[in-house]
Amino acid sequence: MNQTFVAIGAIIYVLGSFVYFRDTLKGDTKPNKISWALWALISFVATAIGLLEGVGWAVLPVFMSGLGPAIILFVSFKNKNAYWKLGTLDWTCGILSLISLVVWIITRDGILALSLIIFTDVLASFPTLVKSWKYPETESGIAYLAWVINAATAFFAANNYDFVNLAFPTYIVVMDGLLFIAAYRKKFNL
């Protein structure tokens, strides 16, 4: 039964991602390539940590949270208007992502590594969150809602309700929820 929720979440994630891919190819959505590259990397590192820490089906939404950004990053190169600006924040996030992986390899401390990964993801998300707030028309907000639903399925599939199982999915629910609100803030009159 728990796997059913995760499978449904994965399908919803794919549908939301399809909307984002389509809108990116049409030029309606303009992803910040740095955020999307880091989101892919960070989610794949979190997936690896989860698998090696014994997280079961609850790791699928985390993996999906990396697969979508990897594909969106690829698709964004087809859109000449997609943002690509390497700043200090971008480099810092990339370096912290790699440090998180190294820390986990050295310490085998999943909690420390996931904490660093979540912190890094916050930094990676900041450029897109600011862009979404200032220019909500450059985002496909409905995709973020689909991604919130996907991440929330981890709560149904978790083997244990502890930090290693639920920290990253909880973070994804919060951050993608904020991105959804930012993308639709004018419609919500915020």
SSE order and pairing:
Elements: H1 2-26, H2 33-52, H3 59-76, H4 88-107, H5 110-134, H6 141-152, H7 154-157, H8 163-188
Task: Give an account of the 3D structure.
The protein is an all-alpha fold. The protein has one domain. It is built from eight helices and no strands. Helix 1 packs antiparallel against helix 6, helix 2 runs antiparallel to helix 3 (59-76) and helix 5 runs parallel beside helix 8 (163-188). The longest helix is centred in the last third of the chain and has 26 residues, at 163-188. The model has no long low-confidence stretch (mean pLDDT 85).
Features:
mainly alpha
Please give a quick description of this structure:
The chain is an all-alpha fold and 190 residues long. The chain contains eight helices and no strands. α1 packs parallel to α3, α2 packs parallel to α4 and α6 packs antiparallel against α8.
Euclidean distance between termini CA atoms: 38 Å
Sequence of secondary-structure elements: HHHHHHHH
Radius of gyration, CA atoms, in whole angstroms? 16 Å
Number of strands: 0
